[in-house]
Amino acid sequence: MLLVVKPLSTLAPDAELPVHTSVALQRLHDAVPDAHFTVGWLMASLDKRSFGMIMLLLAVVAMAPGISLIAGALLMIPAWQMIAGRSAPVFPRLIADRPLPTRHLAALVQRAVPVLRHLEKVVHPRWPTPFGPTKRLVGVVVVLLDAFVVLTPVPFGSVVPAFAIVLIALAYLEEDGLLLTLAMLVAIAVMMAASAGFWELARGAKWLSGL
């Protein structure tokens, strides 16, 4: 049996109109296969929103202790491809074709949608920015933040940089230049604080090694 994957833009009669991220996620939830899905199916379903949405989903996952390293490592793939100017993220076949339990995606979406609906009351398109340079800038900042998600040795240390990526992804998806500017300032503050923390850890390790 041939499975035809329809992008989210074809799943609703008003698809030509801009939709909020929460609506796109809900449509994704409603269209996902019953038992298993693949990252390849997810990319095809997200269509032109794939970069922002996959960053948002992986950043939310990266906020959870225990799996932040895996989510952070996967997040590097679309971030680097944004910098390279690709039109959509492409994952290695080993990752793209691996069956994943639908219940995990459903649980993630069900938790994210109510929060996004509240945020979207104040998030909307404004302060338009040039698409190409903005896309590459977002990729660069996400790579830098994601490095702290992956490398932080402190329990729950990935939560703050992952949350900054969530803000950036939401601003990118909603084309909200004001929120994107604020999210970038948050990202800079997070990276400065995290760098200072790493520096203090390195100094402490050097001092202990000298005892």
Keywords for this structure?
single chain; 211 residues; mainly alpha; two-stranded antiparallel ribbon; 9 helices; disordered N terminus
Overall geometric form: globular
The number of strands is 2
Low-confidence stretches: 1-6, 9-16
Give me the number of helical elements. Answer: 9
What pattern of helices and strands is seen along the backbone?
HEHHHHEHHHH
Tell me, rounded to a whole number, the average pLDDT.
Answer: 84
Number of domains: 1
Biggest β-sheet strands, sense, barrel: 2 strands, antiparallel
Distance between the termini: 68 Å
In the sheet with the most strands, the strands line up as: 1-2
Q: Tell me roughly what share of residues is in helical segments.
A: 55-70%
User: What is the CA-based Rg, rounded?
Assistant: 18 Å
Question: From the helix content, strand content and strand pairing, which structural class follows?
Answer: mainly alpha
- Give the amount of beta strand, in percent: under 5%
